[in-house]
Amino acid sequence: MLIRCERCSTLYELDEALLAPEGSAVQCTRCQHVFTARPPEAARQAAPPASTPEPPAAAPPPPPPPAPEPEDEPEREVEPPRPATRAYAPEPSRAARSGPTVYKPQPTQAAVTRAPVLHKDTVGTFEARLRWSARRKWLIPLVVAAVAAVAAAGWLLLSRRHAPEAGRLRAEGLALMALDDATSLDQARARFDEALRLAPRDRAPEADRAAAEILRAAELSEGASAMQLRAAARAAERDRLRAEQQPGWEAAEQAARAEADGLAADARAQAEQARTLAAGAAEALGRLQAAHAAPAEVARAQALLAAWSGDRAGLERAVAEARKRLPGDPWLALAEAALDARAQDRATQERAAVALSALLAHDPEVLRARLLLARTQGALGRRQEAIGTLDGLLAANPRHEGALTLRAKLAAAAVPEPATPSGFLPAPAPGRAGAAGGQGAPAAGNGVPAPRNGVAQRPAGPAAPPATAPPVTGPPRPATAPAPAPGAPAPTGAAPSASPATAPSAPPAGAPPRPRPRPAPSPEPVEFGGGH
Q: Which residues is 119 bridged to in the sheet?
């Protein structure tokens, strides 16, 4: 059957079997108007009875029923009544008609464009829907709050899952930082970056990364200082060759000049890289210090930066702040000892050596402390102790470039004689006695070791006649005393024999002039201390 909305005149097709005999309340899906729809049979019963037409055909059709009042039944357009023999579906039960069932009849082609769905509802259910629409404005904020709470809980769970991994990466970075070579420091910085990516709210990995950059800057600065010393040595060799101008000096002078220039350029590049790393670390630490609740690792990195830059007041402030939350941290003790190791007075260097030895007794894995201790021992004249310290460092990290370079210099400068307090290199040996005008003396700058025995050489003179021994009273003694052992000091009162100096032979007539003896290059100075 077809029904029409009283308000908007929307036409719907509805199965009358779904309607109660007395009519059912329906709601227009277009204007939401509720009206009563009755089946055609009930509508015919409500209409006045009409005269029964005669059976023969050609009888006029019965008059249409009167239009119902608007409040009782809406005006509708219905098709002619179907034959009376049509069987209607059984009336649904009262329980089925009492609920808010939604009818979905098949609309006609004309009604498809208007509203193909018709809802069957009661007035009470419609009022309940109105109340639900009023409450719906509070539902949206509640849903948004619930989604935010679920997202926060998920983020917390994920952050807790990543926290152990970030802690493991930080521990690996600190272990690599203790190895103290260029490759290990770069790997430590990569570990700290990965830990910061997993835990972006944790500031400790960023502070540890700044500490690794400071140590890398110190390593680059020390390498630049060593290159500057080598460049100065090659420049001195170049000047010597230019001054002497011996045969073939031009090629040697050009090679020395090229090597000196290359070393100087490399030293400048490394020093600039060290300054860049230190500046980046200082900027990061300043940003972290300005943030609220900075971790203790920030103060530890600031202590290392103050020790590298020579700021004793800043070092004391940073160490005092860091030790409140990091008692017994080895990097704080290293920063204090590093600044003392750079001092020039012997008392401060002794204090630094004691502090570094105590640090290594508790934390032997900090190899930077071993390197500083070896430099301090070399500066104090304890060359063999320094070599032993470097051997222990190289046993822990065989690729430590600073330790390899320093040990090679110490081994090259070592001599059998005990180290003199005046310097690190042995003094040149004096010339042979009896040489006129210094003949036979080595040229200045030659590192010729001194004679092994400590008895001073006396100048050779005319042979004295043998002295007559006075008469000896007492027990008889052997006529000839045993010869002393090689290298043993001579007996008291006996002068060692000295061979006379041999004069150089004159060159034959017509021979080219004999070239002057070429002195050996002076050894490179050994650098000690923790300079930057």
A: 27, 102
